[in-house]
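Hey, I was hoping to borrow your eyes for a little while. For a while now I've been wondering how a particular protein folds. The fold is given in discrete form, as structure tokens running alongside the sequence. Could you read through the record and tell me how the tokens relate to the sequence? Take your time with it, there's no hurry, and the full record follows here:
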Amino acid sequence: MFIQVVHNIGDKDAWAQRLASVEKQGLPTDFTLHSSVTSKDGTTAFCLWEAQSVDALSAFLNDATAGAAQNTYYPIDETAPATSLPHSVPA
């Protein structure tokens, strides 16, 4: 399933450190990050993930961004009008 995540970044330095740590360790193989962008002021980031469930992804991301951001998860309706998603990547 595709999941949109909005990260409200409360501590930009901690956010950068947390992301560097995740990038160094690598993502778990059961998640695919399709897109990640950050607002110009650095207070909000938006990511498009593919994962088995919101619960699985939130367990990983909430731990990975603890103390740096509050995360809100939106399961994507893949059949909604004007929805454009990347092709699913097999696990």
About this structure: The helical segments are 12-25, 54-64. The chain is about 25% helix and 30% strand. The radius of gyration is 13 Å.
